[in-house]
Amino acid sequence: MTPVLTWRWPTPSGLPPLPLVGGALALLAALALTAPIVEVDFVRLIGSVGRMIDFAGQMFVAPDWAYVPQLLDKMLETIEMTVLGTAIAIVVSLPLGVLAASNATPHPAVYRVTRDLLSLMRALPELVWALVFVSAVGLGPLPGVMALAFVTVGFMGKFFAEAIEVVDNKAVEGVRAHGAGWLQVRLFAMLPQALPDFVGTVMYILDHNLRAAAILGLVGAGGIGYDLVMSMRLFQYERLLLIALSIYLVVTLLDRLSDQLRSRIIHGRRV
Q: Which residues of 234-258 are buried (b: 16+ CB within 10 A; e: fewer)?
């Protein structure tokens, strides 16, 4: 006999707990009260659906194949900016992540200072730092790489620290019991356990940095961003379609690569 599916909460009465209901109602009330501040108008939003569909439909045009060589050069520059900025960030953020982990830092003062430094580095978006570095070193991909690396250190250092903080302490105690020193414990007990999370974080950051690098050209920091914005402003949909597809393909390949690397590290085999 097929069991009857009943929608009941795991409470004695089968109803949602009162604090949960009260919190949800309070949240909805706060959203309703603050909606006018950000000009949220559902009638206006629903009315704009037709215009958004029209805009999306205009992108389905014959691609500008003559633009492909220039697109490949700009996308290659964007990918190089992404990889180089992320590689620099990994080298810098890994030791900072160790210092920012509560169970790996040598002193609570070091932990607090490193955490505050990482928060400062990720406080502003890449576009703002790109403006700063463009004013310092001039136009080109170099300020874009610097901006990506700077902000990425802030995010990646935080992710690394949180991955280290949740490692199994039994392995740490076992390595320490064999007379391992401070650095050896972190290298041979903590980092191997956190390696799958490290790989996942790095691939996610690569995904994010690729999309960030795609708009840094707006301020003269290299990449495909300038062509992307100008194609939208000049209604060059035949170029915009190629740019969007190329970014989608690269992001998809990074996602597949992330799955393969994580499966090799976790399971030791291909999936």
A: eebbbbbbbbeebbeebeeebeeeb
Q: How many CB atoms lie within 10 A of CB 152?
A: 28
- Whole-angstrom distance, CA of residue 222 vs CA of residue 77: 7
Structure-token pair, residue 142: 């170099």
Domain coordinates in residue numbering, the chain = 18-57, 66-267
Do 131 and 152 touch, CB atoms closer than 8 A?
Answer: no
Closest CA to 107 of 153, 188, 115: 115
> What DSSP character marks residue 37?
G
Residue with tokens 């900016």: 81
Residue entry with tokens 């463009």:
134
Q: What is the 3-state secondary structure (H, E, C) of 41-58?
A: CHHHHHHCHHHHHHHHHH
List, for residues 70-112, the tens digit of each pLDDT value: 889 988 888 899 999 999 999 999 889 888 888 878 888 998 9
CATH topology of domain 66-267: MetI-like fold (1.10.3720)
